[in-house]
Amino acid sequence: MSCVIGIDFGTLSGRAVVVRVADGAELGTAVHDYPHGVLTSALPGGTRLGPGWALQVPADYIGVLRHAVPAAVAAAGIEPAEVVGVGTDFTACTMVPTTADGTPLCELPAFADRPHAYVKLWKHHAAQPQADRINRLAASRDEPWLDRYGGLISSEWEFAKGLQLLEEDPEVYAAMDRWVEAADWIVWRLTGRYVRNACTAGYKGIRQDGRYPSPEFLAELHPGFAGFVADKLDQPIGQLGEAAGTLGAPAAGWTGLPEGIAVAVGNVDAHVTSAAARALEPGQLVAIMGTSTCHVVNGDEAVAVPGMCGVVEGGIVAGLWGYEAGQSGAGDILAHYVPPTSTHERLTELAAAQRPGEHGLLVLDWHSGNRSVLVDHELSGLVLGETLATRPEDVYRAVVEATAFGTRTIVETFERAGVPVHEFVAAGGLTKNALIMQIYADVLRRPLSVIGSAQGPALGSAIHAAAAAGAYPDVRAAAAAMGRKSEAVWRPDPRASAVYDELFAEYTRLHDYFGRGGNTVMRRLRAIRRRAVRQ
């Protein structure tokens, strides 16, 4: 029996799953929580962080290799020698500043108290001013790559975060030899080879048609930024499903796996899930619904979609154009509204007893900013319609509805731009909640298919590992044998959909008023807060 291991590095933990190559059966799994979690207020040593910061400690990722992988193998009841390959996925864009040999700068004593020496997690949004400048300059120069990102680059992506580092801590920037996506850094640790994956290079690194933004463009942003690509970023590109190398001796020691087995090119949690859900054909949109939501869909050609995260040739699977959009908050917004005296389960039960529109509320789901289609992390959440009779379950249901409205905004934007969506496939932790799934079906007015695995990203990484190990000729073949989904599990209720059409129209009015310049109060509030924190 041949097996592969998929390792999913999430926001708060890493998960390893042992998968049988022949049929995709999941034999064993284990989870390792990151000891440091997400750093939003201070570094481990006490150095304070400003608003919008979200950092991590890279040693926590190595802990997943040391603990979760051996535990998953033990749970599967297999011998390590039966493992023929390893695949990984990561949240993106999560950036690690390193020395030339891959050592994170935060592990050097000289930089242990410097925030910019740490990993910038995907939801680090403190680089919004840099993103604004990148977007203004790109538009003024009519940069050809801008349309591939819907006209706007996010503060979450590589260039905005890198520019923030340069401008706020030039000493750390000068000491940094490599600006590395965590998806590639972990593969570097596994193999000893630094191979940049095509997925994050395209979506998060503005690499289109084999090129990055020019030195001239970068110099206009900041003279010291002209060499960013050549000096800090550029690296050989590995295609998805290929082997980045083989497991090296140090990583074999951490994991207990055989040295020399295949290690797949790194990837992103959302994009690998398409393979796990058997949703690689054009028009099959996969929504990975968890802390945040990412929407990925393939198309036959490249078209400009306003406010998307990017369209990349081969970004999801070879031979097609992969589109990505997303919402920066979903499950974490719901968690924010669970009072200490209640639970998700109890609020869901109470909210499910309501009829659509009964609570009288409307929410803008921008508590972590807006990734698509406005691409603005200076925006913030809004709850409209509260009275003294409003209860926690009312707000809870309204937040669920708001995230569904945000998803509908994304789907309709894709379709108006010429990217058809024939099937909506849900994956991620929120699929366990029947109320959420029914509301999404009602709001979207379409059936929802559901991935057949609770470990979508890890299974997707295992599928890529099987292709990299040569067990299948390519990712498509591996996905056909190892992936799974249930079709049209949730169907819309026409009466509920009619009410949600009314509410969605109101959501869209608020969306455009606060998000498209009708009232910039959210941005002004952010600026006032930053001034107050600095005083």
TrEMBL record:
Entry keyword annotation includes Ion transport: no
UniProt-listed InterPro entries: ATPase_NBD (IPR043129), Carb_kinase_FGGY (IPR000577), FGGY_C (IPR018485), Ribulokinase (IPR005929)
EC code: 2.7.1.16
Biological process annotations from GO: L-arabinose catabolic process to D-xylulose 5-phosphate
Catalytic reaction equation(s): L-ribulose + ATP = L-ribulose 5-phosphate + ADP + H(+)
Keyword field: Arabinose catabolism, ATP-binding, Carbohydrate metabolism, Kinase, Nucleotide-binding, Transferase
Keyword Transferase found: yes
Domain Carbohydrate kinase FGGY C-terminal: 286-469
Cited Gene3D superfamilies: 3.30.420.40
The organism's place on the tree of life at top rank: Bacteria
GO-annotated cellular components: cytoplasm
Enzyme class: transferase
Pfam families: FGGY_C
Pathway: Carbohydrate degradation; L-arabinose degradation via L-ribulose; D-xylulose 5-phosphate from L-arabinose (bacterial route): step 2/3
GO molecular function term, any single one: ATP binding
Family: Belongs to the ribulokinase family.
Record's protein name: Ribulokinase
